[in-house]
Every structure is written in structure tokens, then in C-alpha cells.
Design goal:
The structure holds two protein chains of two kinds.
Chain A (H helix, E strand, L loop, with lengths): L4 E9 L6 H9 L6 E2 L12 E2 L13 H6 L2 H17 L5 H5 L1 E6 L5 H12 L10 H5 L3 H10 L5 E4 L5 H15 L4 E8 L4 H10 L22 E9 H6 L6 E10 L9 H14 L7 E5 L6 H15 L7 E3 L2 H4 L6 H15 L1 E2 L22 E2 L4 E8 L3 E8 L3
Parallel strand pairs in A: 4-5, 4-6, 9-10, 9-13
Antiparallel strand pairs in A: 1-7, 1-8, 2-3, 6-7, 8-14, 11-12, 13-14
Chain B lengths: L2 H15 L19 H15 L5 H4 L5 H16 L2
Helix pairs in contact in B: 1-2, 1-4
Classes of the chains: A alpha/beta, B mainly alpha.
Chain lengths: ~400, ~80
């Protein structure tokens, strides 16, 4: 059984606000939501900016007890899942709850919770840390929260593959729905990495830009960290049509690969293999693709390597492709990145508007693609791919198709 | 470039790379010493500790040889002493 998999709900918490319409409005305007850090004092960091979720108040979404139980990353997961489930119109019967899967990506887990506990231990000399530390910080806390909130009793798990986490999660969920192993899937990713200890670790990597994120631009100086979550509702197309759901697009394929090359340096070969595998899974020729939502971190290495990989997969068709990095606007949200970018890609297909690569200033000969610089572009695209390439050399690519 | 400075920098490189100190000589390239980008930032981190320096990303970019690294550290040390 190979069923077509429709997306019937999208939820997103991003630097544009706590809903998908907030995010899409920002992307569709080509507006970068990268701003000065406020969650931590940025004075001692080499980079002053990030893509924070603005004005986020936990008590707007949770009662005090639940807010205390949940790290920011798990809250984002729950808020995005509520929006996606609400938008899908799905009513969960007890049978359907057993046949529903939740697969969420998360790279770091509750970093702020860990930081706070360990600060009190090491710096303040407290002899103990909060008993909620483990339950708040575990990377599956977001998926478990959604499961508890909706009584979902099917397969529920978290995938942690650094920056590819959410693409791996959506890909696994897609395959479960396609094969019939699950009837509905709640899939995506969430991350809240903006705590001082973790930011210092990123600073030491020397990959975070001191200004802003300028993917594919000659003067790019690195990535900008972001936070948030996005969640998709996946179900068989037939089921969606039978219940009269609004179909937002189709997940048509998924491919993955490992570079087995280097723990942090990207490889064009590995990236290209993941793209080819995704296209083969979708039974699509490269020429069918009109838009690539790039991994596009804004580091020197990634953007040039990704360009090389795209050229090798698409050949002459690479000249026809629109390739943009929405990380220039919502930042690099690590384990949530692929989910936010899936939402962006579905928006592009649905609304016929390609979100641009913002903050672009000058062409780089090593990134000689049509990167849709700065200005959103009206374009009807039938099929698109979204790339995620993680530290550790783990690559995951999703294929989306318009389905109306 | 004093011998003492060279020896401190090459010592840090050898210790960080887990290679014999005598293999790290002033004319070696990072490629010859099998120092990749992640090794490079790890060495910068160790050098910051050794010399109590803040090595900005811009100063670190483009350094590919032991000599360039010693020269870069020397420049930063001079700037620090003039503060």
C-alpha cells in the first residue's frame, strides 16, 4: 500500500510570532526577523543578534503548573501542534488516537533548563537541582507533551540529528502514513537554543555571523541562530478528501544520506545523494522541481557546497531553479529548521509566492544560482524540495507537491 | 617573532592536535599537519587560553600555516600590550 500523503494543517512558532499566518506574512514580505538578542545579555558574545520568538508569554498558552513543567522548546512544540491540529479540523476518536503518530525533531532539548540548573549547582554553590530538570530538558518532552495533551497513543518519538532533525522527523512520519503504519501523523520539530551556555558553545564554533544571515551572498559571515517550532498534520489524501479537509499540499518523497566524510565539514556528494534519493522516492525527474528551499545557513562552506550539490543533481535545469534560504529571515532554528522550512515551502506552493533570500548584497561566483535575492517572487510552482544538512554529515531532503 | 613565542604557539598546536611537538615547525602548513577547520578553531580556543587573548573571527580567517598563526598571535599580543 502506497498512499498519497496530504498536509492538512500547519502550525508555526517563529521569530515572526506564534502562528503560521504570522510567519507566512513575514516571509511573503521578504522581511528578516533577525533582531538583537534579548533572552540573554549579549554583551559577552561575539554576535549580538538572533531570531527570537517575539513577546512570547508562556501563560498566554499554558496554566502556571504546565508552564513550570515545560521548557520553552516543548512549549513551542505544543503551541505549534495545537495550531496545526486546529487548522486540520481533525477530531480524534479513541480509535484514531491509537492510529496517530507523533514524530518531532529536536537537536538540543531543554538547554535553558539545563543551564539554569547547572548554574545554580556550579556557580551559586547550591547542593541540588530542580527535580523537574530531567522531565523538562529531555529532547522528547515536546513530543510527549503533544501526546499527553491530545491522548495520542500511537508511535510517538523524537529524532535528534542536529540541523536535519525536523526533516528526518517529517520524512519518517510521511513514510508511516504512506505505508499505512499510521493513519495520521503530527510531525515537525522544535528548538529553543538561546541560553548562554549553548550560545557560548556556538560562539566557539566561529560560525555565527556578527551582523546578520546573508545566505549565498559574497560577504556572508555565518549563520544566525533562531528558535521556534513548526508542526504539520499528515494524512492520506483519500482520507482528507473524504472528510472535506482543506489540502495544503502533498509530501511526495523523502531521501536521506550520510556523508561519512567529516564531523562538521559539509560534503557536496552526500548532499547530492540525499536530493537524488528524495527525487527517486517521489518518482520525479529533477526537471519537475521549480523551487528549492535551501539549507542555506549563510556559512562560507555550506552555501558553496550546497550550490555544487544542486548543480550536480539538477545539471542544466539548475539555471531554471529558484533557490532561496528562508533562514535569512527566521534564522537557523536547528532541530526546528526543517519544519519551519517545510511550512515555508508549503506556503510557496499554496500561495504561488517564493520567499526570497533576504539580506543579500553581492553575488558569489561559488553560489551562482538564482537565489531569489531580497524580493519575494510570484511564481506558480508544482513541485519543490527542502534541504537539511546536519553537522555529523547527516542529510535529509523532503519533496513537496502542490495538491489542490 | 621570538623563539619563545614560536615554541609556545607550536606547543599549543602539538598538544591540541595530539602530535609530537617536534613535528610542528614554523614552515609547516595546516594541511601538512592535517589540521582541518574544526581542529583550527580548537587550536584558536587553546591559544586564547595560553595567551589570555580574544582572537576575533576576522583575525583568524584565512590562516593556513604555522607561521601565519604565530604572526597573528604576535600582532594581537602587541595590540594588547599597547592598551
Amino acid at each position: 500500500m502506497n498512499r498519497r500523503v496530504a498536509v492538512t494543517g500547519i502550525g508555526a512558532v517563529s521569530a515572526f510570532g506564534a502562528t503560521f499566518p504570522d510567519m507566512w506574512a513575514g516571509l511573503a514580505a521578504g522581511r528578516s526577523a533577525i533582531r538583537p538578542l534579548t533572552l540573554v545579555p549579549a554583551g559577552s558574545l561575539r554576535f549580538p543578534n538572533a531570531a527570537e520568538v517575539p513577546n512570547y508569554d508562556p501563560l498566554h498558552h499554558f496554566d502556571e503548573k504546565d508552564a513550570q513543567m515545560l521548557d520553552r522548546f516543548a512549549q513551542f512544540a505544543a503551541v505549534a501542534a495545537r495550531e496545526a491540529i486546529g487548522a486540520s479540523g481533525i477530531q480524534f476518536s479513541s480509535e484514531l488516537r491509537e492510529r496517530t503518530a507523533i514524530v518531532l525533531g529536536c537537536s538540543g532539548g531543554g538547554k535553558a533548563t539545563e543551564d539554569e540548573g547547572f548554574y545554580s549547582l556550579y556557580a551559586l554553590g547550591q547542593p541540588r537541582v530542580s527535580p523537574l530538570t530531567i522531565a523538562r530538558a529531555m529532547s522528547n518532552a515536546g513530543a510527549s507533551r503533544v501526546s499527553l495533551e491530545y491522548g495520542i497513543t500511537g508511535p510517538v518519538y523524537t529524532i535528534s540529528t542536529a540541523c536535519s532533525s525536523a526533516n528526518h522527523a517529517i520524512g519518517q512520519a510521511f513514510r508511516m502514513v504512506r505505508s499505512g503504519e499510521a493513519e495520521v501523523a503530527i510531525a515537525g520539530g522544535s528548538e529553543a537554543p538561546l541560553s548562554m551556555g549553548f550560545l557560548k558553545a556556538w560562539e566557539a564554533m566561529r560560525v555565527v555571523a556578527p551582523d546578520t544571515c546573508r545566505p549565498f551572498s559574497l560577504d556572508r559571515r555565518g549563520l544566525i541562530l533562531g528558535e521556534g517550532a513548526a508542526v504539520l498534520i499528515l494524512e492520506p489524501e483519500e482520507r482528507a478528501r473524504a472528510r472535506g479537509a482543506k489540502i495544503l499540499g502533498e509530501i511526495a518523497g523523502f531521501g536521506m544520506s550520510s556523508d561519512a566524510h567529516h564531523i562538521t565539514q559539509p560534503s557536496a556528494l552526500g548532499a547530492a545523494r540525499a536530493m537524488r534519493s528524495a527525487l527517486a522516492d517521489a518518482e520525479l525527474a529533477p526537471q519537475a522541481i521549480g523551487y528549492v528551499n535551501a539549507h542555506g545557513t549563510g556559512t562560507t562552506a555550506n552555501d558553496a557546497t550546497e550550490t555544487e550539490a544542486i548543480r550536480s543533481v539538477f545539471g542544466a535545469h539548475a539555471a531554471e531553479l529558484m533557490v532561496s534560504s528562508t533562514k535569512s529571515m527566521h534564522g537557523h532554528a536547528l532541530g526546528a529548521a526543517g519544519a519551519l522550512e517545510a511550512a515555508a515551502t508549503l506556503g510557496a506552493l499554496q500561495y504561488g509566492l517564493i520567499p526570497p533570500t533576504a539580506n543579500y548584497t553581492a553575488p558569489d561566483p561559488a553560489c551562482d544560482l538564482d537565489v531569489v535575492p531580497n524580493t519575494p517572487r510570484a511564481a506558480q510552482v508544482e513541485c519543490a524540495i527542502s534541504n537539511s544538512f546536519a553537522f555529523g554529515g547527516l542529510n535529509a531532503v523532503l519533496v513537496f507537491r502542490k495538491l489542490s | 617573532m621570538s623563539d619563545e613565542l614560536i615554541s609556545r604557539v607550536t606547543g599549543v598546536i602539538a598538544k591540541t592536535q595530539k602530535i609530537p611537538p617536534e613535528t610542528v615547525t614554523i614552515d609547516k602548513t595546516f594541511e601538512e599537519l592535517k589540521i582541518d577547520s574544526l581542529d583550527g578553531i580548537n587550536i584558536l580556543f587553546a591559544l586564547e587560553g595560553e595567551f589570555d587573548l580574544d582572537i576575533p573571527d576576522d583575525a583568524a580567517r584565512g590562516i593556513r600555516t604555522v607561521r601565519e598563526m604565530v604572526e597573528g598571535i604576535e600582532k594581537l599580543l602587541i595590540a594588547k600590550s599597547q592598551k
